[in-house]
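# step 3/5: fold
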Amino acid sequence: MHPYIAVPATIALVWRAYSRNSLTPAGLVVATLTAVVHAIHPWSVFFAMLVVFFLAGTAVTKVKHDVKAHLTLSSAGSTGGEARRTHVQVLANSLVASLLILLHYRQLLARDKSGDASQGCWPYASDLLVIGIVANYAAVAADTFSSELGILSKDRPRLLTPWDLRRVPPGTNGGITLLGVLAGFLGASTIALTSVLLLPFCPVGLTSSTGKFFGDNQPGFEGGSGWGLWEKAAWFLAVSVWGGLGSLLDSALGGWFQASVIDVRTGKVIEGTGGKKVLLSASHTKHDGNSSRRLESGISFLDNNGVNLLMAFTMSAGAMIISAYVWDLPLSTILQ
């Protein structure tokens, strides 16, 4: 991005998070560094996806917040609902994309010895890192939409991990509803649309990957390197579907590796502050000596942040591996 756009855009994004009390102090610092990494890349699309993810995620978090707050409990002893996000939560959603962005920026600079990596366009069937970056944000956006809107479903969630798909309380890790699944695909589509509008696709016609005239560039589906209407439509569909599948993977990982703890007195799920683990310990006992908490599902191997990071990495890596196979590209190009 050009500095005269990147600097005020970064300041505005961080100021909004600060003024809305959306992040902890450490979260603001990490979010600022994340925004800077996205802004230094010459393509504006990655910074735009970060902004869309932040703004859309904040919006769905506030949808019927008062209702959601009473559906779960906080491990701190208050009602549930999303509190200020920590630096760990910021990294869980953006670390993979940030690393891939730095790698791609290095690739662009290496291709253009003049140091101006902003020139040119993205040819069809190239640059696997772009696939991984977009896949990351499609998946985490889908997960955010699914979690924040799915919990409002009138139907009790079904646990994705066991064969019987038993009913579980709202907020259970691994619990899914039809509303949540559809919301996940909606979240992924916001990132897909952003990428379609802002990625520097090489158009069908007289162009090349460096933006220079060389002759008639054919559409990618016809063996060329251009992105026509059908190629972009397929891209939008693929990103939306892949991101939506990411929310389902997050549910599966959460159902297996993250413990869902229930408050025995209310039957509500207890959420860890900042995405941390909720422990079953001797300190949580009733007067009769019995525990006031019980394990609903999963094992205490990962916290919510660990699940999100693992999901983001898996979906990014998976998207690049599948694209490399479909486009017949060596995976080694990721590090070249």
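# step 4/5: annotate
The mean pLDDT is 88.
# step 5/5: archive (pending)
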